[in-house]
Each structure stands twice: as structure tokens, then as C-alpha cells.
Design goal:
Chain lengths: 298, 294, 390
């Protein structure tokens, strides 16, 4: 019995790891101040490209990952060039539209994607491969955060106009963020396909988009580690808890989302809150309190 | 003849999308909220209308009102539970409201699934007006006419409320700038609740007319959400007339493309148009008045 | 401060997971003489109505097997139920959970063909024998690991088409199909084969989609062809909506459809518009043999309605699995159940009478009955006399 529980736990961890990669893909766009649902489209592109190559051309997992990342990246770069000039609300709407269009394309390219019947994924993904890929992605993002891109992205996010006057190439930063998001999303899609062992147009649709956004926002959108924690809570935990709860699980998920959003608005991993707490502890003085008030984020 | 027949079918399907789009547009333009929970208002509207005729045995007219009321109640409840706490925090809460609207979307959807046992439901024959009009070989059902009339009336009514009444001016002022609205002596809370109720009622009606002619399940709102979303973006959110036109347009496109091109391409055409409009004319095809930006 | 906080929340998370693991470990455990069979249910999701009666049939069979000591040696079957919602991703996940539990020696699943196609990959990888109870696409069975007790609707549809052509004699027929689902395309083909060569003119096929919810356009297309009969080969919800849409627009011709409208839930949603619409079933309580009558009686006692064709298929699936477990000897394993399951070639005195298995697929063409609903919600054998009297 313990063996079964262990296997379930591993299954949950696997889904959490892939969820984390997808969440990180969305995190990158938010980093540059863009609210985008498009990760799911990038993931779908990566997954169907890779699955096709694995079935027809006998690709193994690593070349398939490269192809999937490339596919996601190309779509993201194209979408970025086209969509980034839209205002925040309209960009969000446009990325939702992109998901709808992606699904329609998948349904109608039956020869390549299996159409609405879906397709069996011939290659299986192992736990260590997931850990390795997620580790590499995290490493990459941690280095990126300390690079010039990271500084430019944060400046763009806080105030694009001010950033532009300071000489930050706002458009270029955002397009780059989109492309990076696409590559990571494409890789995440391939891994998700390898876990599911079967993908159809609904495998990459609105519900996954919503889960991914929830992971990022509730995990904490101001640090890449937040996306990882968010993915554990919102993609891993449900897989494991599933065995105890039957109907009504969605109601619990919904209430959880609501409660976190209202009570912990900065997400579970919130560097700003930590800084405030730290300052409160270190200097329980009027000056510290004043700084705290001034720091309330809009 | 076939073309006319399918045009009529498309317009009546479009009436449902139009009702939905009007509701969606009112919320988006006044509150700047991308409300993904909107679809479940339609589901609950349809369910309450269904229970009104099957459990309470009341006539269809009462059911229509019950559906609208259920939609309005759901919308106000969602607004107060999911959006008010974030609104009171101030600032741009687009991201936060997306998450909370998703939270209520999945919770209310699951509640509808439990309430119906996930079974398909249908208004029993005889509980829905079953008249059939034949005009020169074109067949029109009474329910189709009702849906079209209702969509036109609701659009006109909401348009008049927004443009010609003090309350409407307040609602639009809230959409522009809440601070300025308050300075002008308007209670933003009343304005917001009215807007939510109007949007919910229109969406509830969409659900009732969508469900009346066929079978439906707790998932009714999901399909409506996506097509209604396309309609409102294509038509433009600044003006309810644009949103309504977008709805009719989507309905006609859906039916005619299935007839003359292929059923498998109808969504491709609809959503392709959606993306094209977003890229080329992000404010919609029929923008007349631009409301304030977030 | 920050690292402490982070460490603390991680520790809390780890503790929560550990607690959940322990809780899970305490709920499980295999008792002496207990044989575990996995069952991927579909009580929610797009085909929940059918999932419910399939499940009723399966539970009834397992109860009966356990009560009668059918396995011998005091052994009992315990169903390990996992809700798959008939979505490929969720069902595959549940199949994986069943696969990792080595005490589960067999599995039952799947109503929709794409879901069955996805699940069987996972169970076959784990060498877990699978019996498909509801999916209809041709060729899904794949012995030794995958067998199927689904009664094939294709054969039944073909016979119904012939009967309609010979007895109701429509001059022309039009078809409507769920174009993006291979199961329905294959059922459409069987109707077309049945009508081929009978002199009934084929006026063409109207496509609908699985996700479609509005059928006014499809009804308009069909009626514009002016056929004397319309064959509906679509998902259940689409079928009911189409029947409603056609009848409310004054279509008076003969409507012919598939087994999907056979469940009581379907009649509840459609009402009297379903009257006199023929469809084929393999199990009809009014014409069943002694075992079938007994099943119908037990089913009525338990659930208060007549069993529909799906309940019968569920019952048959569980019964076949129980037979394999019995044949697998004192200590059934995945290996021995797999062998016993694929070795079954014939079963006597089942609810369908005597049935044959060819290459892992159940055949029972003798039990096909053509039935229809009456206006007051009962089923009767269909005869063309009442046809078209809408």
C-alpha cells in the first residue's frame, strides 16, 4: 500500500514539475509587464510538433524537446511582434483568442495532430528528466534576473513610459520576453505530452491556461520561485488529493483561489512582503512603520 | 430559400450571443473586469428557468423572468464576493479579478454539475411555446422570434439606461474614472451593483433562450462564454449596440459557414476573425464612443 | 528573516504532504480473499448520463458475484473506483494510478473511443488486463491485454437500416453525423452499408461537431434535402437536440438513430419527441432470456427503472471480468487474469444468452432488438406501422 501511495506521490510531483515549467513560461511575460495567456498555445505547438516528430521521424525525447522549444519560440516571436503593441487588457484578450485559434488549428490539421481524436505520445518522460529540465530553466531564469535583461524587464514592468525615457528598449524587451516564454512553454508542452501519454485539442485549452495563470499569480508573480511553489499547490496537489475527494473538488479549488487572492494578494512567495517583515523586525521604529506605509504596492 | 432559412437561423442564434455580449460589454466597460464567470450566469439562468417550468409548473414567460433574475442575482453575488474585495484595495486589479472570476467560474460550474447530476436536461415538450411560422417556405419557431425580439429590446433598454438616465451617466462615469465619479456626487457602489445586475440579467436571458430549443447541461455557459467573448470583441465593448451587432454577426457567420463551407471550419472562421479584429482594430469594428482606459 | 520564513513554509508544506501520505496509507490495504478490480467511472463529464447506468450494471454484477460466491473459496471482488470524467487526460491519469497499485489485477473502462484508445496504452504498458465496456470504434480490442464486451452497434445499425428499407420503404434518406469522432463516423458507415443496394436514395450527409450546441442550422440543412427518412449518428446530447429541432420545425418523416437514446435520462430530456424513433439495442428486458429477466428484475429492485442497453453492457463487462478471475485460480495475478480473460471464447446463459468472443471482442448478433420509446416513456419493439406518425 505504501508503494502505491509513493507512486501517486511521484505522479503528483511529475505534474507539479511540468506545471512549474509552464508557469515559468507565463512568469517571463509578466516579468516584462505583459499579461499573457498564450503559454498554452506555445505548449500546444511544442507538444504537437514534438509528438508528430516522435511518431513519424522517431525522435527521442531530447531532440523532441529542442524541436518543441523551437516551435513554441517561433510562434511566440510571431505573436509577440503582432500583439505587443496592444494595451494590457487587449493583449490579454488577444492571447485568449490565440488559444481559441490554436485549438481550431489543431482540430483541423488532422494529418499532423490527430485532429479532435488526439494522438498517443510514443515517448515516456521520467522523473529525473523533468527535474533536470526544470533545474536548467530555473538556473537560466536566475541568471537572467541578474542580467541587463532582468533589470530592463523590471523597469518595463514598473513603468514602461519611465523605462523608455531612461533608454530601455521597451518593445524589444517585451518581444524577447515573449520569445523566451514561447521556448519555455514549448518545452513544457512536450513534457506535459510525455506525462499525459495522450494529447488532444482539449489537452491545451482554457482550463490549462487558467491553471497556469493561477500558479503564477498565487505562487507569487514577483519572483520565479513563486511559480514553482504555485505549481506544486495548483497542479501537483490536486493530482494527489484526487484519490480522497471525488465530486466537488472544483468547488474546493475555486474557494482556495478566492481565499488566496483576497487574503494573500502578493502570492505565497512575495519578496516585497518579506522585505517589509524584515524591516518591521529589525527596526520597530516610527521610521520603519512610515516606510512600510509608503511601500504599499498599487 | 435555403439561404434565407439559414440566415434566420443564424440571426436567432446570434440573438443569444448578442444578449451575452451585451452583458459582457457592460461589465468590461464599467468595471474593467475580464469576467470569466459570466458563462455560468447563463447556466444558472437556464437552470432556474427549467426548474420554474418543471418543478413549479409555471408558464414559460415566468421562466424567462426567473432566468433573468437568477442571472442578475448570480452576477451581483459574484461581484460582491470576487470583485468588491479587490476593488476596495484600489489600483489596477485586472490580474486579480481574472483569478477571482475563474475561482467562481469553476466553483459555480461544479455546483451546477452537482445540482443536475451532470445529466443532460431539456424543457419538456409543451412547456416552451411551440408555434411555427411559415413565411414563403422559411420556417421560424416562436422561440426564435422571441429570442430575437428579446435581444433587440434588452439592447435598446440597456442602451437607453446608460445614455439617457442619471444612473446610466453614473455607471459610465464609474467606467471613466471612479474618483471623478465620486466627486460628482455619484455613489459608485449603486452604479456598480446596477451594472452587474443588468449584465447578469441579460446573460441569464441568453442562457434561457439558448437552452429552450434543445438539450443542455451544466456546461452550457462555457460554449456561450467563448462565442460571446468573440462577439463582444468584434463588435466593440464601448457601446452595447456594437456588442449586440457582434453577437448577431457571429451567429450568422456560424450557421452560414457550416452550411456553405464546412462544419469543421465554423469555429476557425469565427475565432480567426476575432484575432484579426483584435490585431487590426482592437477597439472593435463598430467603436463609436471610447470609454476610459484602465 | 526571509530564509527562515521560506524554510518554515516549505516545512509546513512537507508536513502536509507527509500527513496526507499517512492518511492515504491507512485507508488502503488488501484483505484476505479480496480481489481488486479497477473501474474508471464516468459519473461526471460529457457522457455522465450513460456513465451512471454503466456503473449501475457493473455494481449490480459485482454485488451478485460476491453474494453468490461465484469466485469460490470465499473470495470476493472489490471495485477500486476512479472518476475519469471520460476526459482522456483525467482517465489516463486514473489509469496510471490503477497501474501502479500491483494489487489491482484487472480494470474496466471507457465509453468514448478516444478515451479508450488513450487508456489502453497505459494499462498495456503496465501489463494490466483491461476490459472495455462501452467504447464502440472498431478495432479497439487488442488481446491479450485488452478485450471488449461492448456490444458492437455497427452490426445492429446495419440490420436496423435493412429493416427500415424493407418495411418502412422510405424513398430517400439523409444522414447527420458527429464528424469529428471516429466512433460516430464508423456507426454512420454501418447505416450506409445497411441502406446500400436497397433502392433507398442517399441524399447526402450533414456534419456536426462534438462541441456543437446549436442545431437549428443542421436541421435547416437536413430539411432542405427533403428526405423521407433521416439517420442520426451523433453524440447523445446532439441526437436529442436534433430530434427536437427537426420535430419542432414540422419534420414528419422517419427518424432513425442509435442506442444512445435508450437510457431513461435521454427520454427525460427529450420527452415525447422521441416516440416512434427506432434504435437498435442488444438488451431489451421484454425479449431477454432467463438470465436477462433475472438481471432486469434485480436491476429494477435496486434502481427503480428498467435496465437500458448500457446497464446491460456494464453488467456483462463485470461478469466477464469475474469469470476470468474465477478461472485464474486461487491467487489471481495480472498475468493469470490476462491469460484467463483472453482465453474466454464463449459464455453460456449470460444476459444476452450465449455469446462468442472473437479476437477479444464479444459477438451476440442474435440478441439485437429494434426498439422505440412510446409517448409515455416506455420502450417497445419497433414496427414500421407507427413510423412517421409524429
Amino acid at each position: 500500500m505504501a508503494a502505491t501511495q509513493l507512486a501517486l506521490l511521484f505522479s503528483a510531483i511529475e505534474f507539479a514539475l511540468v506545471g512549474a515549467i509552464l508557469a515559468l513560461s507565463t512568469y517571463v511575460t509578466l516579468w516584462a509587464g505583459l499579461l499573457s495567456f498564450a503559454t498554452v498555445s506555445f505548449a500546444a505547438t511544442g507538444a504537437f510538433t514534438a509528438t508528430h516528430l516522435m511518431s513519424e521521424a522517431g525522435f527521442g525525447l531530447w531532440p523532441a524537446l529542442a524541436a518543441g522549444g523551437l516551435g513554441g519560440g517561433v510562434l511566440a516571436a510571431a505573436a509577440g511582434l503582432l500583439l505587443i503593441r496592444l494595451d494590457s487588457h487587449w493583449l490579454a484578450l488577444a492571447t485568449v483568442a490565440l488559444i481559441l485559434v490554436t485549438r481550431v488549428v489543431v482540430v483541423n490539421l488532422g494529418d499532423l495532430t490527430g485532429g479532435s481524436e488526439g494522438r498517443i505520445v510514443p515517448v515516456k518522460v521520467e522523473l529525473w528528466q523533468l527535474v533536470l529540465v526544470l533545474g536548467l530553466v530555473c538556473l537560466f531564469l536566475a541568471r537572467l534576473a541578474r542580467s541587463r535583461f532582468g533589470t530592463a524587464a523590471v523597469a518595463t514592468r514598473e513603468d514602461p513610459t519611465a523605462a523608455a525615457t531612461m533608454g530601455v528598449p521597451v518593445r524589444r524587451v517585451q518581444t524577447a520576453a515573449f520569445a523566451i516564454s514561447g521556448v519555455i512553454g514549448g518545452i513544457g508542452g512536450v513534457l506535459q505530452a510525455g506525462l499525459l501519454r495522450y494529447i488532444d485539442p482539449d489537452s491545451f485549452y482554457i482550463d490549462l491556461a487558467v491553471t497556469v495563470i493561477a500558479c503564477v499569480v498565487l505562487g507569487g508573480a514577483y519572483h520565479w520561485f513563486g511559480s514553482v511553489i504555485g505549481a506544486i499547490v495548483f497542479t501537483g496537489l490536486p493530482v494527489y488529493v484526487n484519490q480522497f475527494i471525488g465530486q466537488g473538488q472544483s468547488i474546493i479549488n475555486g474557494v482556495l483561489l478566492l481565499v488566496i487572492m483576497i487574503w494573500v494578494p502578493g502570492g505565497l512567495i512575495d519578496p516585497l512582503r518579506w522585505r517589509r517583515l524584515r524591516e518591521r523586525r529589525s527596526a520597530a521604529s516610527p521610521a520603519g512603520a512610515a516606510r512600510e506605509v509608503a511601500e504599499v504596492r498599487s | 430559400m435555403l439561404f434565407l432559412q439559414q440566415l434566420v437561423n443564424g440571426i436567432s442564434l446570434g440573438a443569444v450571443y448578442a444578449l451575452f455580449a451585451v452583458g459582457f460589454g457592460v461589465v468590461f466597460s464599467t468595471m474593467r473586469i475580464l469576467n470569466l464567470a459570466q458563462g455560468v450566469y447563463a447556466t444558472w439562468g437556464a437552470l432556474f428557468a427549467y426548474w420554474t417550468v418543471t418543478e413549479a409548473g409555471l408558464p414559460f414567460a415566468v421562466a424567462v423572468l426567473a432566468g433573468a433574475a437568477a442571472g442578475a442575482v448570480a452576477a451581483v453575488a459574484v461581484d460582491q464576493i470576487a470583485f468588491q474585495p479587490l476593488r476596495s484595495r484600489g489600483g489596477d486589479q485586472l490580474l486579480g479579478t481574472i483569478i477571482t472570476s475563474v475561482a467562481l467560474w469553476i466553483a459555480l460550474r461544479e455546483a451546477a454539475s452537482l445540482a443536475t447530476g451532470a445529466a443532460p436536461l431539456g424543457f419538456p415538450p409543451g412547456t416552451v411555446p411551440d408555434g411555427l411560422l411559415q413565411v414563403g417556405g422559411v420556417r421560424v419557431l416562436t422561440t426564435q422570434l422571441l429570442a430575437i425580439a428579446c435581444a433587440v429590446a434588452v439592447t435598446a433598454a440597456i442602451h437607453l439606461v446608460l445614455r439617457r438616465t442619471r444612473l446610466g451617466a453614473a455607471i459610465r462615469a464609474v467606467g471613466h474614472d471612479r474618483g471623478a465619479a465620486m466627486l460628482g456626487g455619484v455613489d459608485p457602489r449603486v452604479a456598480i451593483l446596477t451594472a452587474a445586475a443588468l449584465a447578469g440579467a441579460a446573460t441569464g436571458l441568453a442562457g434561457v433562450f439558448f437552452a429552450a430549443g434543445q438539450t443542455f447541461t451544466f456546461g452550457l455557459g462555457d460554449g456561450l462564454l467563448l462565442h460571446g467573448f468573440a462577439a463582444v470583441v468584434i463588435g466593440g465593448m464601448g457601446d452595447v449596440r456594437g456588442a449586440a451587432f457582434g453577437g448577431f454577426l457571429i451567429g450568422v457567420i456560424q450557421v452560414l459557414s457550416a452550411q456553405y463551407i464546412s462544419a469543421s471550419f465554423q469555429d476557425a472562421i469565427t475565432f480567426g476573425l476575432l484575432l484579426a479584429v483584435l490585431v487590426a482594430r482592437p477597439r472593435g469594428l463598430f467603436r463609436t464612443v471610447e470609454l476610459g482606459r484602465a | 528573516m526571509a530564509p527562515t520564513l521560506r524554510r518554515r513554509s516549505l516545512a509546513a508544506l512537507a508536513a502536509a504532504i507527509a500527513a496526507a501520505t499517512l492518511a492515504g496509507a491507512c485507508t488502503g490495504g488488501t484483505e484476505e480473499g479480496e480481489v481488486k478490480i479497477g473501474f474508471i467511472t464516468a459519473l461526471t463529464g460529457p457522457v455522465a448520463f450513460a456513465g451512471q447506468t454503466f456503473a449501475n450494471g457493473i455494481e449490480l454484477a459485482v454485488d451478485q458475484v460476491n453474494r453468490e460466491g461465484y469466485l469460490g473459496g470465499g473470495r470476493r471482488i472489490t471495485l477500486v473506483k476512479k472518476e475519469g470524467a471520460e476526459k482522456p487526460s483525467q482517465a489516463v491519469d486514473q489509469a496510471r494510478q490503477l497501474s501502479v497499485d500491483q494489487s489491482v489485477v484487472g480494470a474496466l473502462c471507457c465509453i468514448l473511443s478516444p478515451v479508450a484508445g488513450a487508456v489502453k496504452v497505459v494499462t498495456s504498458d503496465a501489463e494490466l488486463p483491461l476490459n472495455i465496456y462501452g467504447a464502440t470504434d472498431l478495432g479497439l480490442q487488442d488481446p491479450p491485454y485488452v478485450v471488449r464486451t461492448t456490444t458492437l452497434p455497427q452490426e445492429a445499425n446495419k440490420r436496423l437500416a435493412r429493416k427500415v428499407a424493407e418495411e418502412a420503404r422510405p424513398a430517400s434518406v439523409a444522414y447527420v453525423v458527429t464528424q469529428d469522432n471516429s466512433g460516430w463516423m464508423s456507426q454512420l458507415k454501418s447505416f450506409q452499408e445497411g441502406f446500400a443496394g436497397t433502392g433507398v436514395r442517399d441524399l447526402g450527409t450533414v456534419d456536426t461537431l462534438a462541441a456543437q450546441t446549436d442545431f437549428s442550422g443542421a436541421a435547416g440543412q437536413l430539411m432542405a434535402k427533403n428526405p423521407e427518412a433521416i439517420v442520426i449518428s451523433t453524440l447523445q446530447q446532439s441526437t436529442i437536440s436534433l430530434v427536437k429541432a427537426l420535430r419542432s420545425r414540422g419534420y414528419r418523416g422517419l427518424l432513425v438513430t442509435t442506442e444512445v437514446v435508450g437510457s431513461p435520462g435521454a427520454f427525460k430530456a427529450a420527452g415525447a419527441t422521441l416516440a416512434d424513433v427506432p434504435f437498435p439495442v442488444y438488451f431489451y428486458a421484454g425479449k431477454a432470456g432467463p438470465a436477462g429477466q433475472e438481471f432486469a428484475r434485480a436491476y429494477r429492485a435496486e434502481y427503480g427503472t428498467d435496465p437500458d442497453a448500457y446497464a446491460a453492457q456494464g453488467y456483462m463487462a463485470a461478469f466477464m471480468m469475474a469469470t476470468a478471475v474465477r478461472n485464474a485460480g486461487a491467487n489471481p495475478t495480472r498475468e493469470s487474469v490476462t491469460k484467463a480473460l483472453s482465453d474466454i471464447e464463449r459464455l453460456d446463459d449470460t444476459i444476452y444468452g450465449t455469446v462468442q468472443f472473437r479476437d477479444g471482442q464479444l459477438y451476440a448478433p442474435e440478441s439485437i432488438v429494434h426498439v422505440t420509446w412510446t409517448r409515455d416513456g416506455r420502450q417497445r419493439e419497433w414496427a414500421p406501422a407507427g413510423a412517421g406518425a409524429a
